[in-house]
Amino acid sequence: MNRREMIGVTASGLGALFHGMAEASENTVTGSKQPDVLAWERKVPLRWDTDIVVVGGGMAGVGAAAAAARTGARVLLVERFAVTGGMLTVGGVANFCGDMEGQGEVFDEILEDLHKWKALGGPSRDSVFHYETLAFVLQELLLRRDVKLLLHTRFVDLRVTNGNITELLLYGTSGLEAVRTRQVIDCTGEGDVARAAGFSVMKGRNQDGLQLPMSMMYFVRHVQEEGHGPLLPEGWLTPVETKEDLPMTSIWPDGPGANAIKVKVPAFDSTDTESLTAAEIAARRRIREVMHYHQSVEKRPWILDHCSPIIGIREGVRILGDYVLTVEDLRAGKRFEDGIARGCYELDGHKPDDEKRTYILPEEERTVPPYQIPLRSLIAKEGNNLLMAGRCFSADQLALSSARVSTTACMMGQAAGIAAALAVQKGTDLRNVDPKEVQEEIRKRGAVLDL
User: Fold this and answer.
1) Domain end among 307, 342, 362
2) Using an 8 Å Cβ cutoff, are 155 and 358 in contact?
3) Do strands 2-11 and 302-307 pair parallel, antiparallel, or not at all (unpaired)?
4) Distance separating alpha carbons of residues 62 and 110, to the nearest angstrom
């Protein structure tokens, strides 16, 4: 997989790196400034030559990389954090949502390993796990399958020719390096690869582009001693003093003498650098205000232990695929000739513009029957060798609110990895791979596609 040669890379649109260098016009959709354009060119070492690059190491990315590697493909997985697992590990969610059975051998192996470490299940639900142990389990799973893992590494840019992505530019502690590949799977959640390629994406609700709201996870320990006092020093922030003023807040156990708390943080854009920065700042302020209520008003014996290193993102962008899965498909329990994954979770769409526990739909309209996700929704419409899985797959916002959950995301990733590996084996574009062959392999690996 290692190669040492140089490729020339030309990029533009990097004027934002030089704050204030030129006058900028305002974007009427996001309110952000559009920077002037800076063009640059340099030679970058071509470090790797591989079959499949998976960008993003959440549950979809792990499913894709592990499944493709089992098929015999050479796989490189790019992850920006120190561990894989995405929102479940780095985001601190620590709870599987969706059907935990019939997802296929990748997810089955993850569950088996968590059981071996006695890290799955708790007094309240069987889907709760120890997130640090999950990070270790995922790491070892990928290494057992000879996935080339690059941690602390960011996808930067790419080169695309006639709809084919040929090289990706990465940045890690070694600096800028490139990888040449035959197939790419975008599991970033924000559609980073597709957006860099100039492929069409969809974002948020139709009327204003607002995404499903984010949430921040934080963790508290219980203390026995008296006098630990309120969290907010006088004059800091605006403490929450009544239950009515609380934002949507969810509390669940986090092991002996500890709790995990999730607070809703609405109306920010995870695909805009400044907006995502503002979301992280707002979330950590809100945590302090909410903690004041729990400690000073409810008198809970809690002290703040830590916050997750990243805010929880439910929706980034959805990449336009050969098929857009719709909420009507879910309500109909639709089957597809090229169905490659199965979902069943409710339409879990919270309103994106308020912080209370309010939903887009009334409770009686949120339940859906089991439904299938077609392979066409995992293939980028404007590319020949780009697949996507997880929360950036091709769907409308309400369909995404169900299919984005971790179990379904992993199953989608497994299907994308199998399809990409078959395309490599056959030396063909994705659309020339027979979906029935993909389905056959998925079923061989223990996944249930039937509804």
Assistant:
1) 307
2) no
3) unpaired
4) 10
Task: Note the pLDDT tens digit of each residue in 412-422.
Answer: 999 999 999 99
Provide φ and ψ at 26, rounded to 5°.
-85, 135
- Residues 337-348: pLDDT tens digits? 999 999 999 999
Q: Beta-strand (E) ranges in 289-424?
A: 302-307, 318-319, 339-343, 371-374, 386-388
Tokens of 197: 């390629």
CB atoms within 10 A of CB 308: 22
In this structure, is residue 331 part of a structural domain? yes
DSSP state of 295: I
Torsion angle of the four alpha carbons 416, 419, 425, 431, in this order, in degrees rounded to the nearest 10? -120
Instruction: Let me know if residue 28 belongs to a domain.
Output: no
Residue ranges making up the domain that contains 219: 214-307
Q: Is residue 391 included in any domain, yes or no?
A: yes
The answer to whether 411 and 371 are in contact (CB under 8 A) is no
* Tens digit of each residue's pLDDT (9 = 90 or more) over 357-392: 999 999 999 999 999 999 999 999 999 999 999 999
Burial class (CB in 10 A: 0-12, 13-18, 19+), 189: buried
Measured between alpha carbons, how far is residue 310 from residues 84, 105, 192, 296 in Å?
A: 13, 29, 17, 27
